[in-house]
Amino acid sequence: MTLGTTQEQETIVVKVITLGKSTQEVRRDSPFSLDSLLKELGVNGGLEIRVNGQAVERARPLAHGDTVLMVPKIKGGR
Amino acid sequence: MDFSRQTDLVEAEALETPVTMIGCGGIGSFSALALAKMGCVHLTVYDDDRVEEHNIPNQLYRPSDVGQLKVTCLADIIKSFTGAGIDVRPERVQAQRLRGIVVSGVDSMEARQRIWERAIKYRAGVAAYIDARMGAEVARIYTVRPVDPDHVRLYERTLYSDDDALHVPCTAQAIVYNGFGIAGLVAGQVKRIVMGEACPFEIIFDQRTLTFLTA
């Protein structure tokens, strides 16, 4: 299911969870790739990216209802 | 101790499995107490570090412990809370022969890599390895059977370098409720292992977004 469908493009809503920071919903016109999202959010390292629980290529187009999870590469303990 | 409130949850005999804790800081100090309280009777702790002032808010130690070895303070605290003694090793783990269940709560990926290669990977004496990592309000916990090639492959994918790790400011590295939360999850994993129950390979939780994931 999509929101606001037109002939050329449709609006998709993606849930973005950045662990340790925030949860947000992002609405964009499709096609909209994971790489575009990460650039918009200024993500440049230190995070593992999963879409719907799976590691994916950054060029992957996002679909309506996807959940993008950003897991920090943490290393502490002492 | 009287364990009558938990006898249907975990068998006392199962907790005779040796458990080794590597690192006695924000993860290890609370986890060791939880394991001792649960009834782990053969508990060994490794750490060559001493208690510092900035450890008091987010580790188990008391202000009077500042300047003392963490392992000896931890043994004293556990003794006072449980009456039980633990085996203390004021040293770093290099290639010691470890056995039973090994829990790591060290503070760098370099240390994790070293411990994994020299003391855990394909070591028949290590029944399970639990690697717990913390950063601010996030925790990642991996539970591995070190002689299972599939587990070895999966776990090694999680070993990023210190350079690749998220750089967290000194002022946002640790807070006490994350250490308590990790201790509960570590003790739960130990219980599942000794009882032969299914054990998730990965647990991730985040107190900020209240996210909890297992895989």
Name the structural class of chain A.
mainly beta
User: How many helices of chain B?
Assistant: 5
Structural class of chain B: alpha/beta
Global outline of chain B: globular
Relative strand content of chain B: 15-25%
The secondary-structure element order of chain A is EEHEEE
β-strand number of chain B = 8
How many separate helices of chain A? 1
Say what oligomer this is: heterodimer
- Cα-based radius of gyration of chain B, to the nearest Å: 16 Å
Which two chains have the most extensive interface, and how many residues on each? A-B, 20 and 40 residues
Beginning-to-end CA distance, first to last residue of chain A: 47 Å
The poorly predicted ranges of chain A are: none
Spatial order of the strands forming the largest sheet of chain B: 3-2-1-4-5-6-7-8
The 3D shape of chain A can be described as: elongated
Q: Let me know the number of strands of chain A.
A: 5
The parts of chain B where pLDDT drops under 50 for at least 5 residues are none
How can the largest sheet of chain A be summarized?
A: 5 strands, mixed
What report would you give on this structure?
The complex is a heterodimer of chains A (78) and B (215). Chain A has 1 helix and 5 strands, in the order ββαβββ. Chain A is mainly β and 78 residues long. A 5-stranded mixed beta sheet of chain A has the order 2-1-5-3-4, with no helix packed on it. The model of chain A has no long low-confidence stretch (mean pLDDT 90). The mean pLDDT of chain B is 96. In chain B, strand 4, helix 3 (109-120) and strand 5 (126-135) form a beta-alpha-beta unit. Chain B contains 5 helices and 8 strands, in the order E-H-E-H-E-E-H-E-E-H-H-E-E. Chain B has an 8-stranded mixed beta sheet with strand order 3-2-1-4-5-6-7-8, with helices on both faces. The interface between A and B is medium-sized, with 20 and 40 residues.
